Structures
1.
Amino acid sequence: MKKLLLITVLALFATNTISAQDSKGYVGVSIGAALPQGDLRDETNTGLDFGFLNAGYRFDETWGATLNWGATGHAI
């Protein structure tokens, strides 16, 4: 439980997104908790989720495109 709380606090402080309401695009990075599911749930603990690149562009109010590149890691 302490690890999950620590990861949550780190995620709040480490998330860095550059955006503005009037701009059409954004670039950012992120970090968060990677929760194991399925068969891994019994074999591993909570891990880290890294978003190395989060980029997007709005064409108009309805349509846009995003590019996200990330990875997760669990200690087994």
Note: The chain has one domain: 2-73.
2.
Amino acid sequence: MLTWSALRTATLDEADAGWFGGVAPPLVERARASRLGRRLLSRRLASHGAPVLFGTLPRSTPQSIAVSTWAVWPSQRLRAIAWDLGAIALGPALRAVVRREAVLRVRSVLGEERYALALASAPNVATTADREHRVLSKSLASDEVLGAAVRRLGFGEFVAFARAVHPACAERVLLGEAPGSVPETKLAWLDASRVATHLAALPAAANEGTIDHGASDHH
């Protein structure tokens, strides 16, 4: 089970240096290594970036957070999950790609495992329009454009899901990336149950737990 304190600790450890008001990354890392430094960084996040997680301290951890152990996984892993969700959301359109050069581009950008995941998930993705096809058709111009589209869509889905779990979880996802680099959406393409199923199927991370290893609760 995940505690509020452990979520704070993971978020402070993983927060992109850009969230700390122009402080040089090496100084941020030094601050993260000391109790006083962590208090100062926590205060910064309480006023900018994570007012829910660092600005409040509930008497007990909400159940929705307690069961969301994925929220303390490393940002690199959360980033990979966002890519997974972007690929899954585009699944219906990806199944329709038949041109050889387009298929090769998609497989190159997504990787074989993620491409297979998207195709396998396609029947389970609810669609209301041809939006997936429009997004994909505009994104096949280059590897960079396609990669940016998958990332943007995936993080939008991830943040929407995390916010529905608890605003503090959404802050955790957002702070792992540079300020302004993650889009937020109020209307997700994927059902919350689909995202939850994907998260549940992933192996547990070694750093899951309830222990607070820092001073991030004090600000």
Note: Residues 4-201 form one domain.
3.
Amino acid sequence: MSFPEGHYTNVYVRDPLTGETLLRNGTGTSSAIGIFACGPFTKPDYPKIGQRYKITAERNGKLHEDAIPCITTNHQTCEFKE
């Protein structure tokens, strides 16, 4: 995963198949065990478990990007892990 451990801003989550943006200008955190949690999502835009999403996020002025499957959903904060 290309998200080093830490806090992120300007988080965008996009469905790579449809191009739909599920999250704009969110915040996120990457953990030492490789989980990227971000939000706040709204109910109609919750990602689907097992589906891969393109995530872009900024940390310390540097843009990070990866396509990661969703592992938890149906909350304002959702988690992604390879």
Note: The mean pLDDT is 95.
4.
Amino acid sequence: MPIIILIPTVICIFALFRASVQRVFLNLYIPIFTMFPVYYYWKVAALPPVDLSEAILLPLGIAIVVKEIRWWRFAPMDIWVVLFIFTSWYADARNGHSTASTFDLFASLCTALVPYMAGKLLIEANGMRTAVIKRMLFCLFLACIASMYEYRMGKNPFTLVIARFFPDESFPWKTQIRWGFGRVSGPFGQSELAGMMLFFGLVMTLWLGYNHLWEPKFSRARWLPGKKSAVIGWTIGIVLLMTQARGPWIGTVAAVPIALIGRARRVGRAAMLVAVFLVAGGLAAYVGLKAYANADNPTTSSEQENAQYRSELLDHYVPVAEAGGAWGWGQDFPRIGGQGSIDNEYLFVALTQGSVGLLAFCMIALESLYYMLSGALHNATQRDRYFNYSLLGIFVGLLITIFTVFLGNQPYQLFFLLAGWSQAARFGEVGRSIQPQRALVQVYT
């Protein structure tokens, strides 16, 4: 039964012969990316395990190389993306885990490089920004509706349905209960990962609504009260609360104000107020969390235990990461103090891919922030400026959130999609006014 993973591959290959790469990305990849779990996989003999997103990303990536790569223009971030992927392979290879390194390379090429290429080549130059965002948010909206069951019943509906096709695979993550209700994880695996996807959706819903890019009503459900933008936005926001994931909540508190700078008439003043708010709030949160997570204090709740666990991670694993050197330990890094879960992406990268991998990851993040800020400051239209501020807010929120959780499943792909997207979005949606084939040539030369 796990061979059903390959059904999207067959559909994708068939579609690529009949439609453009952009349309396949919009109509096939986006729904899979936002609505279906990617933690189940198909595995045969010596081949790498293939999950649902990789089943589409592999043929989609080949098609991008064949049909679109001629429009590629070099950017320094390209080097850092390639270096990051290389370290994910080399760390295991140099430690004698050749099979694991091959599997890591396949996964990184599919889930990091292909979304990066898609973000850089497929969306802005073809005038697809609004279509892609609307498709992502509508699919997230549908996933949210199904996910509400998890909050009340404490069981993931996606796992309940799909697990029967994978009888030999034991899904390691179960719905956690907090305050008497299930922490909603939806099709994303964990509540923290769901939270990252949902605050992306919340910020982009605000952008679409402000620019009146939604239809007034659902075309097939005009009887629903309220505007389509309000129904989708409130649903995503409510389910974000249902995740009960504090890391993404903190990311949301940072993401939304930064994004809203793009609405302000006096941008400089708004940016200054947001900066003061974030710095003051960040310092207060740091002091409070440091005291809350102090291991010398007696714990009074499971939440405080989790905070202490994350604090102790740094004490236990920073020396281990330093001992791993430039290339890291790979996936088989030493476990200390029974702490097998590394709930900090920066620390996880340092452990598994070494200081070189961490440098590459940080440079991808910094260059993405530069491109987003450049687009926010220099675009001619408010819609484009607001969009770049929205990307900036989302990316800052992601970077803050992954101090408290690993970057996996769909948020991992989202990170690289945004990194590629930031390079094209800084020039505005150029595909609106000039031919797609000429767009990237004009803006990069």
Note: The CA atoms of residues 2 and 172 lie 17 Å apart.
